[in-house]
Design brief:
two-stranded antiparallel ribbon, 11 strands
Length: 205
């Protein structure tokens, strides 16, 4: 994955792993999605970048990617990036409006210095597929009290939230208390955030 930064410099990142949160971690105008998938990448210098996708069951349309993933999950060896066809997923969904900002990992120790890119348009999935993840995370009382595996929203603070290839500073109010204060670092660039703001450019340049 190649990213272009605000100063027009570029960075190349190789995929490391992926994981799914139910419900989503990032919000759009205060609303969470049914799922959010993160593909974690790393540059040669160790810097991390995460590409995020939302999933929604609103249209009750099966996701071929999730169908493949769920079919392979019972494997004793687990499921890695090499086991799934990410190319079709990316080719079909990477275009369109997206958000980018400097943030952190969303699991302890929530290390900062992570380049985030989150695609706005949600990918369709079926209600049955949603239920599988809800049963495991969101509706499972033995997992985080049945509250899901998503971190609470964090304040944007003085960061710039970029939409498309253009961006501006957005004045945000505090969007939630810090999660797991005893396990996460304290900082001004924590993730996830509410992806709210005026659209600067709805099309990729």
């Amino acid at each position: 994955m190649e990213l272009t930064f605000k100063d027009e410099t570029k960075g190349t990142y190789k995929p490391l792993q992926f994981h799914i949160h139910a419900p989503s971690e990032h919000a759009l105008n205060g609303e969470l999605f049914d799922l959010e998938m993160h593909i974690v990448h790393q540059a040669a210098d160790g810097e991390l970048a995460v590409l995020g996708f939302f999933f929604t069951a609103d249209n009750d349309t099966e996701s071929p990617f999730l169908a493949d993933l769920l079919a392979k999950i019972p494997s004793a060896n687990g499921v890695g990036l090499d086991d799934l066809d990410l190319k079709d997923l990316l080719d079909d969904n990477i275009a369109g409006h997206f958000f980018s900002y400097d943030g952190s990992l969303t699991t302890p120790p929530c290390t900062e210095g992570v380049k985030w890119t989150v695609v706005e348009n949600a990918i369709d999935m079926s209600v049955a597929q949603k239920k599988v993840f809800d049963d495991y995370y969101k509706e499972n009382p033995s997992f985080a009290g049945g509250k899901g595996n998503n971190r609470a929203l964090q304040a944007l603070n003085d960061r710039v939230l970029i939409e498309g290839w253009e961006g501006e500073a957005v004045d945000y109010t505090d969007m939630g208390a810090n999660w797991a204060d005893d396990k996460c670092v304290n900082g001004k660039e924590q993730s996830p955030i509410d992806l709210t703001g005026q659209t600067m450019n709805d099309e990729l340049a």
